[in-house]
Design goal:
Blueprint: E1 5-7, E2 13-16, E3 19-20, H1 27-38, E4 44-45, H2 46-53, H3 59-78, E5 89-93, E6 97-102, E7 107-108, H4 109-117, H5 130-142, H6 154-180, H7 184-197, H8 202-214, H9 218-235, H10 242-252, H11 263-266, H12 270-320
Parallel strand pairs: 1-7
Antiparallel strand pairs: 1-2, 2-3, 4-6, 5-6
Helix pairs in contact: 1-3, 2-3, 4-5, 5-6, 6-7, 7-8, 8-9, 8-10, 9-10
């Protein structure tokens, strides 16, 4: 039997032999499992976990629900006949704490992703060797979407932002690596993935413009500036900075020798970097709030539709049973 594979990017899934495992059916059991997977290197207080999962309930109720959920998860992980059972994943519990032990061969997409990113965290893309670049490519391929899409728990949002930042950093490093090694089309691909994360990322447009020019596509580089201009106006209500405007003017004038800047040189001054990081964070919060609002609007529409349908049913029942319509006036 092949190892159990757990994916958290883009949504929660458990697979073995390319088949989905549906053993963890309880929503709270899934949440507990995902939380333990993301914090698999330490033990957790049962009381803290119960409070996190049922913060709106009394302490007695939250502890009761936690015991039930923990039992459900234990049954799913440890039942010998269950397709989910795997010696690589073991749930250790005692009267005070809970810990999820994962063996080195256990397959978890976020674990592989973080292991690839950790050794290159402070390294420029131009300084990557072939092995590290290959590892980062695999990590980028694992990122199938935001962590646990559709989940809005506080602990999940924190991990989601952290891993999204790591993903964007990986793409930037791969852009630098590709540019240095003459793989301009590969670098363009990673740049477009970055713009999928943040379409108003001016630094990415700058590097993409240079990559297109170096690949012999001056027209494509000029069009990228126009995309950048439109995105910045729409998302932030600002104009492109002087640096990218200068590059654009040089491209329009047909001036040769667009410099191949290193990754460190492509970053703006420290104060501007901090401002950009704040802008990125605010945009993500705005995007999250927009998704929450859209979800609430859908829920409200569903409830309104259900109430309207129910009222129609009641009207039909009243019409077919006159006594239900209220007391009748005597003639």
């Amino acid at each position: 039997m092949s190892p159990l594979r757990v994916r958290l990017f883009g949504g929660f899934s458990l697979q073995r032999d390319a088949c989905n495992c549906e053993s963890v059916q309880s929503g709270k059991a899934r949440e507990l499992l995902c939380y333990l997977l993301l914090h698999r290197h330490r033990s957790h207080s049962r009381e803290v976990l119960a409070s996190m999962l049922w913060g709106d309930r009394t302490t007695t109720q939250s502890k009761k629900y936690f015991r039930q959920t923990l039992w459900q998860l234990q049954q799913a992980l440890h039942a010998p006949s269950d397709n989910l059972s795997d010696p690589a994943v073991t749930l250790r519990t005692d009267g005070e704490s809970v810990r999820l032990e994962c063996q080195p061969h256990f397959w978890l997409d976020t674990a592989i992703f973080e292991a690839a990113f950790a050794p290159v965290r402070g390294m420029a893309g131009e300084d990557l060797d072939e092995q590290k670049a290959r590892s980062l490519r695999r990590a980028a391929d694992l990122y199938k979407g935001e962590l646990l899409e559709g989940w809005f728990q506080d602990w999940c949002l924190l991990h989601r932002e952290r891993l999204q930042n790591a993903y964007e950093s990986i793409l930037e490093k791969l852009m630098g690596y590709c540019e240095k090694h003459g793989d301009f089309e590969g670098g363009q691909g990673y740049g477009e993935l970055l713009l999928c994360q943040d379409q108003a990322r001016e630094r990415t447009y700058y590097r993409l413009m240079r990559l297109h020019y170096l690949a012999g596509d001056r027209v494509g580089a000029i069009r990228l500036f126009q995309r950048c201009e439109e995105a910045l106006k729409k998302e932030l209500g600002v104009q492109p900075g002087s640096r990218i405007v200068e590059l654009y003017n040089r491209l329009r004038a047909g001036q040769a020798g667009v410099a191949m800047a290193t990754e460190s040189e492509s970053h703006v001054a420290a104060g501007t970097q901090r401002s950009e990081m704040l802008d990125n964070r605010l945009r993500r919060i705005k995007s999250l709030l927009l998704r929450v609002r859209q979800r609430l609007q859908r829920d409200i529409r569903d409830v309104d539709a259900a109430l309207t349908a129910r009222q129609k049913d009641l009207n039909v029942e009243k019409a077919s049973h006159p006594r239900m319509a209220g007391p009748q006036k005597s003639p």
